[in-house]
Amino acid sequence: xxxPAIHLLNRAKQEGYAVPALNFHNLEILQAIIETAxxxxxxVILQISPIYLEKIGRTAAAAMAREAAREAKIPVALHLDHxxxxxxxxxxxxHGFTSVMLDASALPLxxxxxxxxxxxxxxxxxxxxxxxxxxxxxxxxxxRETGADPKxxxxxxxxxxxxxxxxxxxxxxxxxxxxxxxxxxxxxxxxRLIEELAVALNIPLVLxxxxxxxxxxxxxxxxxxxxxxxxxxxxKVTWAKSMAETLINEGEPWKVAAKAREAIGRVVAQKILMCxxxxxx
Length: 281
Ligand code: 13P
Prior knowledge:
Number of domains: 1
Mean pLDDT: 95
Strand content: 5-15%
Number of helices: 13
Structural class: alpha/beta
Helix content: 40-55%
Radius of gyration: 18 Å
CATH superfamily: Aldolase class I
Strand order of the largest sheet: 6-5-4-3-2-1-8-7
Shape: globular
CATH architecture: Alpha-Beta Barrel
Bound molecules: 1,3-dihydroxyacetonephosphate
CATH class: Alpha Beta
Low-confidence stretches: none
Number of strands: 8
């Protein structure tokens, strides 16, 4: 069943686990996420960014995800990940997304707050959930090369409180030391910052850049107050490897797709276990 993300996240926050938020890039990844979540009786957030929606065809991609979520035997939220405009927010809400993120973290705080407020108002008119971002996720890794002070790129607790209070957003993605994509250096997650934000804000917090982080680190982040764990790259890499291996001997599309689904399903099951969301549906 298709539900607003906040329903899944509030329950997870109360009961001390996280909801895996998994990016899909095609039909096989989407199916593997839902099938595995059903098998493990886990709630799940299906997410996709505007860049990918444009690449694979936004109307068809939204329709396949929405219908798969509606038919699923477990609670599924459909989330727009990292959009950069209110036009995308309006489009997603009109196409059945139950959660939306507008990432204005690169803008000055006042502009980030103004956009987050409009995102929250639009989302709430549709009974959907709104996510905003604060700090610079991804920059911590880059800073080793540019020499920037990594601490300056993390979310500031005072700014976070102002953003949440003045915008009315439901969930916040604070920069806490993780980065998107495959890590060149092991991430240094600021667990104390997560805890400080969780206590002060009292809303579900999101860990972006979940690929390639150890289970122990993610579990510690959940213990300190993370409730949504975003993973994308690992699923894409698994799909590509499986396709490359299977296509050598097999040309029948459904058979190639079935192998990819199996391989991605194994990764999804690990992420569900990592989030401790097994049997929470
Ligand atoms: P990864 O691709 O690094 O797993 O990050 C996913 C993410 O944070 C999506 O918003």
